[in-house]
Amino acid sequence: MADHVDKKNSAKPTTAAGKPTLRVAMTGAITETYQGDPEQLIKRLNELRGTEIVAWLQYKHHSYMAVSMAMPGVRAEFEEHAAQEEHHADMLGERISQLGGIPVFEPFEIGQLAAKDNVTAKEGATMEDMVRVDLAMERQQIRLYQTLIREVAFQDPTTRRILEDILIETEHHATEMQNLLDRTAPLEHPGKT
Ligand SMILES: [Fe+2]
Ligand SMILES: [Fe+2]
After folding, report:
1. 35 CA distance to ligand 1 centroid (A)?
2. Is residue 96 part of a domain?
3. Structural domain includes residue 193
4. Is 146 helix (H, G, I), strand (E, B) or coil?
């Protein structure tokens, strides 16, 4: 029985042209019915993980800086987003590990991977600036998640589900930052409508 299963699991799926589609050992959660390219996916998921860790850092920084500023509740909003970005990084890390990869953990590499996806930590001099750079970051992540979700399509339903769950929260964050920006801008620039 065990021999039969092992033999079956060692068979590598191929494309119509006979090219191997799977270069990572099919063990654990990865079976012969898996249709994704784990190596390529691990790379993309690690880039996204980089953007999430940068997002966590940025929101944490903004929460420290927001202490002395007006706008009650904004600091709590930054804190809440930071915790959710950390959770997104965890979700990606767990999936990378399931696919046989190593979740990125070197700070320099994290920054490099995020920058590759056009996400870099931004400070923001005023409350309005902070919210504006947070909104821009969320919008960039929305583009990244939507793109990868479409690429993954039906090849790897679990990864797609994880990406979709993160996208839902990312769009929620973007909406909240937009609402905050709409409220903050007139306060910082009373003449502006
Ligand atoms: Fe996130
Ligand atoms: Fe977010």
Report:
1. 26
2. yes
3. no
4. helix
